Amino acid sequence: MSVTAAAASGPISAEDRKVIFASSLGTVFEWYDFYLYGSLAAIISKQFFSAVNPTTGFIFALLAFAAGFAVRPFGALLFGRLGDMVGRKYTFLITILIMGGSTFTVGVLPSYASIGIAAPIILITLRLLQGLALGGEYGGAATYVAEHAPHGKRGLFTSWIQTTATLGLFLSLLVILGCRVATGTDFDEWGWRIPFLVSVILLGVSVWIRLSLAESPAFQKMKAEGKQSKAPLTESFARWGNLKIVILALLGLTAGQAVVWYAGQFYALFFLTQTLKVDAQTANLMIAASLIIGTPFFIVFGSLSDRIGRKPIIMAGCLLAMLTYFPIFKALTQYANPALATAIAKAPVIVVADPAVRAIDPDADPDATAVPFTVIAPAPVGATVTLVVKLDTVMPP
């Protein structure tokens, strides 16, 4: 048997386990920090976007959450370049300090009621910093572990990094659930800050673990041989052969994976609480249980990819999601809120605005109380009905 084959089939060494554990644990903590905001978006909207109505505030809170995702590619570029210059280990330390510091600051940030417009501005700035840090951390962790992986085990080794996002979400849900139970009705007022403040402990553990890691052997070898890229960004994006690979990776790999992951795990939480009106504690328990069931399969399919290749598994996963997501969310509606499911089935309503009818303008016409519109179903097609609007319930006096 060759040395390569032996390495591929042999057990994971103690050093390999240390690399996987340390890299994964630190990344779990970073995902925990990142997902706390999303898990508490409904409460954060009330704390930092209270100047607008609740629905608009929640949308603004989600947009701030999205801002962190928008800058993740730039974080990958920035810290990827830094990792090529100074090494993976020190880049890890920078990203985790930025993430941990930003998360802790959210926990002590005064609300809109206290400091006005400065509160949401600072909050969005912190979200941008978190996105930059996570962009560098996640890709850096995968690279670091892959550079330690023996031939034939790269899928298995890096699959542990893929579990970190799910475990980070799971950890955030557990901490939030514990704080809800401990603080009771005060959770929406001040108890929500505790999970953010707890992150400083996770930050200390992560830094301590990361300091014990050595630089990856692949990076040390490249540095010793002087084979480091002098202009990695130019080589990646200014040369069509490399740029084509980048585009394929973004659109053919990560885009589909992102839709599958966030729709199946994160959006499901919003769907349960905001659309189906399931109470937050029950929704957290349901999502946490699903994460426990699903997480081991990251390792299973990561190991399988070493045997049959990455592409078949990626294609099968996207196809499975495409075939099952609509029925799954329909089933969630049926069992989590049967009354809503029945109403949708028995009384579907499609409203068509009539451009000939002016909208109500309370300032110009304070006595206006109704506006006609056309309902397509379930009333007879074309039937004109009147929507009565009680102005004191939708407009301030």
Give the SSE map.
Elements: H1 3-9, H2 14-39, H3 41-48, H4 54-70, H5 72-86, H6 88-108, H7 112-115, H8 118-148, H9 154-183, H10 187-191, H11 193-211, H12 217-225, H13 232-237, H14 240-275, H15 280-294, H16 296-308, H17 310-336, H18 338-346, E1 351-352, E2 370-375, E3 384-388, H19 391-394
Antiparallel strand pairs: 1-2, 2-3
Helix pairs in contact: 2-6, 2-8, 2-9, 2-11, 3-4, 4-8, 5-6, 5-8, 6-8, 6-11, 8-9, 9-15, 9-16, 14-15, 14-17, 16-17, 17-18
Structure in words:
This protein has 397 residues and is mainly alpha-helical. The chain is 76% helix and 3% strand. The chain has 19 helices and three strands. It has helices spanning 3-9, 14-39, 41-48, 54-70, 72-86, 88-108, 112-115, 118-148, 154-183, 187-191, 193-211, 217-225, 232-237, 240-275, 280-294, 296-308, 310-336, 338-346, 391-394; strands at 351-352, 370-375, 384-388. It has a three-stranded antiparallel sheet, with no helix packed on it. The longest helix has 36 residues, at 240-275. The protein is globular.
CATH superfamily of the largest domain: MFS general substrate transporter like domains
Structural class, by secondary structure, is mainly alpha
The portion of residues assigned to helices is over 70%
| Shape category | globular
- Sheet with the most strands? 3 strands, antiparallel
Number of helix segments? 19
Strand order of the largest sheet: 1-2-3
